[in-house]
Specification:
Elements: H1 5-24, H2 28-44, H3 46-62, H4 67-73, H5 77-92, E1 100-105, E2 111-118, E3 121-126, H6 131-142, E4 146-150, H7 156-172, E5 180-182, H8 189-194, E6 203-207, H9 210-219, E7 232-236, H10 242-254, E8 263-269, H11 273-286, E9 290-293, H12 295-301, E10 305-307, H13 310-314, E11 321-327, H14 330-340, E12 345-349, H15 353-362, E13 367-370, E14 389-391, E15 399-401, E16 407-414
Parallel strand pairs: 3-4, 3-6, 4-5, 7-8, 7-12, 8-11, 9-10, 9-11, 12-13
Antiparallel strand pairs: 1-2, 2-16, 14-15
Helix pairs in contact: 2-5, 2-7, 3-7, 5-6, 6-7, 10-11
Length: 421
């Protein structure tokens, strides 16, 4: 009798739980050896990786995948280089596991502190990009977590070829193969099983479109680290340096249009709108950005601006389109961001320290910035080395999630025969 999807996923989950206990006690040197050995295996398997990827691309073309999806799916020589470099970079990152902090003596004589530990088993569900397999596996491995990877069906052969290289790295360093497992069935029931196995899986990280993440968030029976939207704002305050404001507002929108940390709405204080909006509009026009503004924005910019609808304030365009609103001041800007934003990344441009502090305190987002582009909201840019995603939730990890975000802490107590009186 063939194995059911549920039985298959249960077997993967049980093996991952057992492997997680081995990984939790693995030394930093052993984990780094596995990462370097996996990088060597990827380098040696370039032709196999390309052949497997070509199989997926051919299927994708036959199934009518669009050019953008095919591009995300492609494992070019440069992307293989990046995967190899990524593994080696993660090997150089400090290992958070076992770090003990805040040790202190209490009046009873015991010593109490906190020790950083892995989360256990992390399930990662993602679409199209095969390089996520390496990113996710390497960060989970370095942070002492076992992982179950469920990539999109369109990348099944590529993901399996990459997984073989990772398994080789694990074997070379004496770590269990089940520390990194790629789900081999394309049956969607596998996702349903993975997100409802709290006995085997501690955290789910979905990486993909909004529909996927909404479904996972709704149906999961284990905690989810995720963000749904990237509706990011830049507010140009009355006390802004105009050169800085133009630089930040330009870069936040036009450096790249697709990422989740790209600005989607620009807010401008009414007192400086006439000075800052015309030069910004000229920059955006030259770069082909469509502007949609409130009535006051239209008064300043005239025919350059379409009328913004209520939906525009909620929109994540991922495209050369920008919504602009002129506001009466800091309070209205904060109200707008907290009402329409997605708690991702928001910035203020100001030389007024009190306004900056108030913005940092009152804007309820996972990254809040002063005089800097929203495009900095990224694990690599924050010095985390790499990230597994961005979390806009409030529990545990918030903002870009790197190695530390894949760990937890437990209290540790040292005594010397102490008993409680």
């Amino acid at each position: 009798m063939t194995e059911s999807v549920l039985d298959y996923m249960t077997r993967l989950g049980r093996a991952a739980r057992e492997a997680s206990r081995v990984l939790a006690r693995a030394s930093t040197a052993q984990k780094n050896r596995a990462l370097h050995a996996a990088a060597d295996a990827l380098d040696a398997a370039r032709s196999e990786l390309t052949a497997a990827n070509e199989q997926d691309l051919a299927t994708g073309r036959a199934n009518g995948l669009d050019a953008a999806m095919l591009d995300r799916l492609a494992l070019t020589p440069a992307r293989i280089d990046e995967m190899i470099e990524g593994l080696r970079q993660v090997a150089t990152l400090p290992d958070p596991i076992g770090e003990i902090r805040d040790m202190r003596y209490l009046p009873s004589g015991i010593q109490v502190g906190k020790m950083r530990v892995p989360l256990g088993v992390i399930g990662i569900i993602y679409e199209s990009r095969p390089n996520v397999t390496i990113d996710a596996a390497s960060l989970c491995l370095k942070s002492g977590n076992a992982t179950i990877l469920r990539g999109g069906s369109e990348a099944i052969h590529s993901n399996q070829a990459i997984a073989r290289c990772i398994q080789h790295g694990l074997a070379q360093s004496g770590l269990p193969a089940a520390a990194v497992q790629v789900v081999e069935t394309t049956d969607r029931a596998a996702v349903g099983a993975l997100i409802t196995m709290p006995e085997f899986v501690d955290v789910i990280v979905p990486r993909g479109g909004k529909g996927l993440i909404e479904r996972i968030s709704r149906d999961a029976k284990v905690p989810v680290i995720k963000h749904l939207d990237g509706v990011c704002h830049v507010y140009i305050d009355i006390a802004a340096d105009l050169d800085k404001a133009i630089r930040v507002a330009d870069n936040s929108k036009t450096q790249r249009y697709a990422p989740c940390n790209t600005m989607e709405t620009l807010l401008v204080h009414a007192a400086i709108a006439a000075r800052v909006l015309p030069p910004l509009a000229a920059i955006y026009r030259d770069k082909g950005v469509e502007l949609r503004g409130c009535a006051r924005t239209q008064e300043v910019l005239g025919a350059d601006v379409l009328a913004a609808s209520e939906d525009d304030w909620f929109a994540e365009y991922n495209a050369p389109i920008l919504a602009i609103r002129v506001v009466d001041g800091l309070e209205q800007a904060i109200e707008h961001i907290n009402h329409y934003g997605s708690q991702h990344t928001d910035a203020i441009v100001t030389e007024n320290f009190s306004d900056a502090r108030r913005f940092l305190t009152e804007v309820d987002s996972s990254s809040v910035m002063v005089n800097a582009s929203t495009r900095f909201a990224d694990g690599f840019e924050y010095g985390l080395g790499a990230e597994i995603g961005i979390s806009t939730g409030k529990l545990h990890a918030r903002g870009p999630v790197g190695l530390e975000g894949l760990t937890s802490e437990k209290y540790v107590v040292f005594g010397d025969g102490h008993v409680r009186g």
